[in-house]
């Protein structure tokens, strides 16, 4: 067993760190759309508009991901939200993510897809509930 192979034992913790950091940054997109924090460059979205609904998904879904609660179904929904965001709002401007500002949407889409398949990793409510049953 090589030294790098021994790092595999920390996979659940590394996954948890990725989950927590992703959730915090993702939630900022929601707080910007819902509460104006940080101040949005393009103003606040109208109530019940697609952008507002996106903000609700980003804030509430981000909270669930942060705590690792219902991680797999929430991650599946958020992955889909980010796929829709890319194709609906970014790709029509230019297909290249580096030119249309959609690189974050693509990364979020695939990170959430990873959580759908792997689960939350360590330090999660899902993990605590699983061990209680």
UniProtKB/TrEMBL annotation:
Per the record, the similarity remark reads: Belongs to the DoxX family.
| Name recorded for this polypeptide | DoxX family protein
Q: Which InterPro entries match?
A: DoxX, DoxX-like_oxidoreductase
What keywords tag this UniProt record? Cell membrane, Membrane, Transmembrane, Transmembrane helix
Which compartments is it annotated to reside in? Answer: Cell membrane
The protein's topology relative to the membrane is:
Multi-pass membrane protein
What residue ranges are annotated as transmembrane? 12-29, 49-67, 74-92, 104-125
Question: Which superkingdom does the taxonomy of this entry point to?
Answer: Bacteria
Does the keyword section mention Zinc? no
- Name the major location: membrane
């Amino acid at each position: 067993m090589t030294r790098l192979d021994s790092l595999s034992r920390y996979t659940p913790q590394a996954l948890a760190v990725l989950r927590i950091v992703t959730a915090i940054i993702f939630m900022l997109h929601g707080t910007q759309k819902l509460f104006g924090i940080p101040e949005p460059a393009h103003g606040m979205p109208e109530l019940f508009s697609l952008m507002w609904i996106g903000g609700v998904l980003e804030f509430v879904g981000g909270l669930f991901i942060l705590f690792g609660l219902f991680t797999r179904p929430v991650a599946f929904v958020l992955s889909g939200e980010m796929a829709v965001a890319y194709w609906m709002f970014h790709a029509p401007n230019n297909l290249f993510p580096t030119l249309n500002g959609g690189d974050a949407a693509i990364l979020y889409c695939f990170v959430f897809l990873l959580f759908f398949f792997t689960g939350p990793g360590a330090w999660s409510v899902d993990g605590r509930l699983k061990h209680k049953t």
